[in-house]
Amino acid sequence: MNRIRVLSDDVANKIAAGEVVENPASAVKELLENALDAESTEITVEIKSGGKSYISLADNGTGMSRDDAVLAIERHSTSKIRSASDLEKVVTLGFRGEAIPSIASVSRFSITTCERDALIGTFVKVDGGKLVNVVEVGRPPGTTVEVRNLFYNVPARRKYLRSVEQEAAAICRLVDAYALAYPGVYFRLVHNEREVLLAPKTDRMEERLAKVLGKKTAEQFIPFRYEEKGVVAWGFAGHPSVTRTNRMGQLLYVNNRPVVSPPLYYAVMLSYKTLVPKGRYPLAVLFVEIAPEFVDMNVHPTKKEVRFKNEWAIRDIVLRGISRALKEADLAPHFLSDQYEKPVEAKGDFEKALARHSEPKAPGAWRERESAGGERMSRQAEPETEAELPMKMRRRSSLRFLSQLSDSYILAEDEEGLVVVDQHAAHERVLYEKIMQGLKGGSCPAQRLLLPTTVEVSSGESFVLKENAEFLRRIGFEVRPFGERTFIVEAVPPFFLMGDIKKAVHDFLTAAQESRHERDSEREKVLVRSACRSAVMAHDRMKAEECEALLARLMSAESPHTCPHGRPTMIKMSLKEIEKRFMRR
Amino acid sequence: MNFTAQKADLVSALQKTHAIVASKSTLSILANVLIETNEGKLVFTTTNLQVGIRCESPANITAPGATTLPARFLFAIVRELPLGDVLVEVNDENVASIRSGEAFFRLLGISKEEFPKVAEFEGKPLFSMPQKSLKEMLRKTSFAVSREDPRHFLTGMYFSISEGRLLLVGTDGRRLSRISHEIATEEGYTGNFIVPIKAIEELEKMIGEDGDVHVYLSGNQAGFRLGTDLLVSLLIDARFPDYEGVIPKTGAVTASLNREEFAATVRQAALVTSEQSSSVKLNFTSNELVISAHSPEVGEARVVMPAKFSGEPLAIGFNPTCLRDVLNCMDEEEITLQLTDSVSPGVVSGEGSFLHLIMPMRLPEGEI
């Protein structure tokens, strides 16, 4: 049965032109997508020297007939689309018909393939794009593509390849990314004859997550699923206490295709706003499912970038999905947990993949990871179109006050063990939510001052202060001009009585100037944060009742586990961890 | 140094002095009490460098001398001893042997040379007045003083002396208490100083009903002599603000209220307020005072009490804790509340010189 046809020029031209194969990883990507499009359930990738000298990808997919296998080497030959209108609703990973010929033209290339019901398979050998020979061979159903000496005939390209480790890491990241999207497919990656990834088929997404990102990291993920207007956003939101310095820990998928998408990154960032510190990026595995006609995959030859028809709507859906999950989850980081002791174990950071490749390890070194299946995870999170993803909702426990440490921290206990609360951060969170709630209802309470304080500002700042006077009034500060550059503070929020008013005004001005160009709602949050911060600095030594009140208010806050600036408000040490430390376990 | 003293006398002296002993000071000598002998008496001194307390107790001194011993341990030990004689012997190494009945203790002390000097006040006091009167004045003012504030002058009690009267003012920025009383002082003397609230709190514990208090001033320290006890405090080095300017001269509304009823009504209305920062609304209408409160998380309250008042109807918000604090410190059956408008201070007064200002809180918008 022949399925492959050469596309008409019309179709071919519609497809954005460009080089597909830039490096070994992009070659692997094309081959991987072909294998997945061919309904494979087992994929083994083997590379040597970071893919520079050897790449082989073997699958158990549909395979190709002898004629298809030969035709596949010609440019723009594909089985995936037929006419330009098909481009509008691409459902397969590949569709351009460029990959195989591109790779074949710059390497010593071979295909061994056999259709499912065929008795005999085909072996096609190509050298620098020229067909060398076609012979009949025996092979179980599926296809093996071998790529040797990539770019052997393009010295310029070869010269610009990165180091073996870097190329290997890129391939590893890539295979990891696809392995996450296809938990029902067995993935195996071998580099220089050492197994780097072995992910058996599973119907449990958590299990796959644990295999790919490491068990410890996977345990920190909070599953979410949210559907609106026919768009489904689901996946796993990383714990805010585990962050990276770049976005490499954020894996985005649109219709199961790994993508790079600024609006989606932005949505993830917004969901974690106030939960992670500035300049840090949380981990996230995000799948967006959307009707193919609302998304354009054909922006870039590598198909990495996508464009949505309604970018803002998608962004908001993702934002709502993740924020909701984060609000419901128990976000207090556990200290003394293994991720702090042995950070290398917390894979997920793909830079670690590099270490995996470059450091020689005992043969058994990775076995441990393989067996690190998610036994403890019993949640069924594989999304189904109808079924609601069962949320792991831990009930918010209350904290029992124990003592105050060094006038800065409150020691408390919950049913799991010891909880150390940063009283400033906790206070900030409580105030922040209080003010934000007050703002919704119009304005917050204000206590008038018996002895109003005067504050002197620069002439530039006086404009900013006048501009923001109404907003300040709403959050409880009544500030009135009192001469050229002097202002008089006549009322403050009740909780601010012991605060340093002058400092608060100056902090507020700084925040107002820095956030000038942000959207109003964002700017307000920044300003309220600055007000809260100045309020809590003063009150250090607290009575037991005050501590208790603060804990109760904190636990009834919407996001009790971080301060508005994203630092944690509490860390936990479970009894288990304590017992471990005392070597009772 | 050797002495024999009654357990009860020792306990009473140590109790007074041990309150200000720092529990976790970096200076270990501050955890100790200085014990000196002086003509048939023992003199105990403690200090935390801001506040110092000195008191005396009778004893049978067999060998004069001085040493310092850990205050908390000494107090704990003496308190546990049976009633009767306690024999204390301190050797040259500052090791104290304490004997009483069958009990024997040995306590390690530190040389008295290391103990910081606590001022002595000799000569004529700045002024004198009955302890009872000062106690009363402090009770009506100290609660209004701020316990913590970057503006240091708010964390102390303002003492002002002029025309033979002592004026005390305490404020935390949202309320202010003022009271005055005549004193015995040098004619024509005028002056003022600010005593930290930490020292005032100790003074309130020590001050009694009988006898006079003599107040001394020397450099940046003030001394309060109560019989044989002495409290010494550093002063707050700041200028007290012009509080008189903020006292309204006349009020638009003058209400005469039954103090206990008013306090009870405020307490009832405040039951639905969840936090200290909340407010209650006072609404003066014809012969009635309606006190109401609401909090979004809890609910609402509305309580009515009869009130005699002059002037136009007025609504004003106050912090209920502030209202109750002032009502609780007063003794009169009827009190006067003067109001100007909803943003100016309310003035609470009784029969004497006592005056209390409370700043209003902004009422939530849209509320009638």
Q: Would you give an account of this structure?
A:
The complex is a heterodimer of chains A (585) and B (368). Helices cover 34% and strands 24% of the residues of chain A. Chain A is built from 20 helices and 26 strands. In chain A, a hairpin with a 2-residue loop joins strand 14 (250-254) and strand 15. The longest helix of chain B has 12 residues, at 7-18. Chain B has six helices and 27 strands. Chain B folds into three domains: 2-114, DNA Polymerase III, Chain A, domain 2 (Roll); 127-173 and 184-239, DNA Polymerase III, subunit A, domain 2 (DNA Polymerase III, Chain A, domain 2, Roll); 247-358, Roll (DNA Polymerase III, Chain A, domain 2). Chain A binds chain B through residues 437, 441-443, 445-451, 476, 478, 491, 493-495, 497-500, 538-541, 549, and chain B through 146, 148-150, 171-176, 241, 243, 246, 275-279, 296, 319, 343, 345, 357, 359-362, 364-366.
Helices and strands in order:
The complex is a heterodimer of chains A (585) and B (368).
Chain A: E1 5-6, H1 9-14, H2 24-37, E2 42-48, E3 54-59, H3 66-71, E4 77-78, H4 99-105, E5 108-114, E6 121-127, E7 130-137, E8 142-148, H5 155-159, H6 164-181, E9 186-191, E10 194-199, H7 205-213, H8 215-219, E11 222-228, E12 231-237, E13 243-244, E14 250-254, E15 257-259, H9 262-271, E16 281-282, E17 284-289, E18 295-296, E19 307-308, H10 311-328, H11 338-341, H12 351-358, H13 367-371, E20 400-405, E21 409-414, E22 417-422, H14 423-440, E23 447-456, H15 459-467, H16 469-475, E24 478-481, E25 486-492, H17 501-514, H18 520-536, H19 544-555, E26 570-574, H20 575-581
Parallel strand pairs in A: 2-9, 14-17
Antiparallel strand pairs in A: 1-4, 2-3, 3-8, 5-6, 5-8, 6-7, 9-10, 11-12, 12-17, 13-16, 14-15, 18-19, 20-21, 21-22, 22-26, 23-25, 24-25
Helix pairs in contact in A: 2-6, 6-7, 6-12, 9-10, 14-18, 14-19, 17-18
Chain B: E1 2-6, H1 7-18, E2 32-38, E3 41-47, E4 51-58, E5 60-63, E6 66-70, H2 71-80, E7 85-90, E8 95-100, E9 103-108, E10 127-130, H3 131-141, E11 156-162, E12 165-171, E13 175-182, E14 184-185, E15 191-196, H4 197-206, E16 212-218, E17 221-226, E18 229-234, E19 253-258, H5 259-269, E20 280-285, E21 288-295, E22 299-306, E23 308-310, E24 314-318, H6 320-329, E25 334-339, E26 346-349, E27 355-358
Antiparallel strand pairs in B: 1-5, 1-7, 2-3, 2-6, 3-4, 4-18, 7-8, 8-9, 10-14, 10-16, 11-12, 11-15, 12-13, 13-27, 16-17, 17-18, 19-23, 19-25, 20-21, 20-24, 21-22, 25-26, 26-27
